[in-house]
Amino acid sequence: xxxxxxxxxxxxxxxxxxxxxxxxxxxxxxxxxxxxxxxxxxxxxxxxxxxxxxxxxxxxxxxxxxxxxxxxxxxxxxxxxxxxxxxxxxxxxxxxxxxxxxxxxxxxxxxxxxxxxxxxxxxxxxxxxxxxxxxxxxxxxxxxxxxxxxxxxxxxxxxxxxxxxxxxxxxxxxxxxxxxxxxxxxxxx
Length: 189
Fold this sequence. Notes:
InterPro entries: NPHP3-like_N (IPR056884), P-loop_NTPase (IPR027417). Keywords: Repeat. Pfam families: NPHP3_N (PF24883). The protein contains 9 helices and 3 strands; from the N terminus they run H-E-H-H-E-H-E-H-H-H-H-H. It is mainly alpha-helical. The chain has 2 domains: 115 residues, no CATH class; 58 residues, no CATH class. Strands 1-2-3 form a 3-stranded parallel sheet, sandwiched between helices. Strand 2, helix 4 and strand 3 form a beta-alpha-beta unit. The longest helix is centred in the C-terminal third of the chain and has 17 residues.
């Protein structure tokens, strides 16, 4: 869910590369039973947009081939027993795509070793020592960056009240640091 939100936010910026989000497990049916495992950009686009109009597929392919896209490849950990095949296919594809192409692969920590085979930078999200304080600092920074009415005490107080309400109404979401961070950013909009 978080990676879909990232892709959606990216899509909202007109100067940003066009995002394409897909679950990596959706590539599994495209892979042969035995290697070598290969996919092409069209496979990725079709897995990401399913039964989309041909014009959309072609437009996304053009953006990918020009390096003006963001591939958000979600949930490497959900590929289970086909993980090695998926990693081999994706690594091969990335070797054939433009260097300028932005790629984000998400996974739980259990797949860190597999993820390194993609030869992409690896970043690990860690839980802050005090999530509540961190999120309040985030809200303050967002208010400062937005300026204008967002920089006022009233604006910040209203957002803090919305955050408190959301914490009470959806406590499970607030237990996941990344989701809590995204909720704060959404409330700050």
